[in-house]
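Blinded run. Sample ID left blank on purpose so nobody reads anything into the name before looking at the predicted structure. Input follows.
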Amino acid sequence: MKKQQKIITLFLALAIMLSACKKPGPTTFTLKLRAKYGSQSFALGTPNTDAAGRVIILSNLEFYLSHIKLIHSDGSTVNVADVALFSFYDSTGLSVTVKNIEGNFTGISFACGLDSLENDTTNANLYLPPNPLSANYAMYRPMLDYQFEELEGKWDTANIAYANMRYGLNYHIYSNRAYRQTVLNKSFSVSGSPCTLTMYLDVAQIFNNAITGSTINIVTEPYCSSSPADNPDILPVFANNFSNSFTFDGP
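Blinded prediction complete.
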């Protein structure tokens, strides 16, 4: 019996030793996207208060990020996703995963929206889910191509029921003029064990951005689209602010 126990103990010790000696190697990398509103948490249908005391509730927030890449310490890049559609309607649509990644990285680069080749397609109806360019996701308009960003909701001067809020917010951002590229710096390593990195979109920065210094006044500029009647001049301001609203810092 004692001999048996010794053999079992020896086997377990050997297994632990072999496990400890395993070399790191390529693994799975996941980029998660979450949202916040300044120092406040964020969710669709939940009120947030801006610096002027106005209460904002968003009913829709979805957008394309493309050419998502990890930046190696030597400056080379690793592709994570060519195109990804992030929708806050569905938490399963808030991450992208890629296999066989390994290395030391200094940041991540991506584009907000689609490049001219991706946007100038006439084949949206040929794509099927889960392809993010599928017309099933209602981000494609035959006359306008793809919406890069869509933000909808309401605001009021007090925290009241959404149905009773008096003022609407509607920003539908189309056209190649809205395409922006972004780089976020962060040192991290991917090796051996699956790695998850969480990136935040600060919704407050879309309206009042500390980096660009530009503001979208929700009182006088509550909507934007490509229509001449819908404040198209807000489009570059929205695009600039949006692309500078990402961070690795949570609420």
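Unblinding after everyone has recorded impressions. Confidence is low (pLDDT under 50) at residues 6-21.
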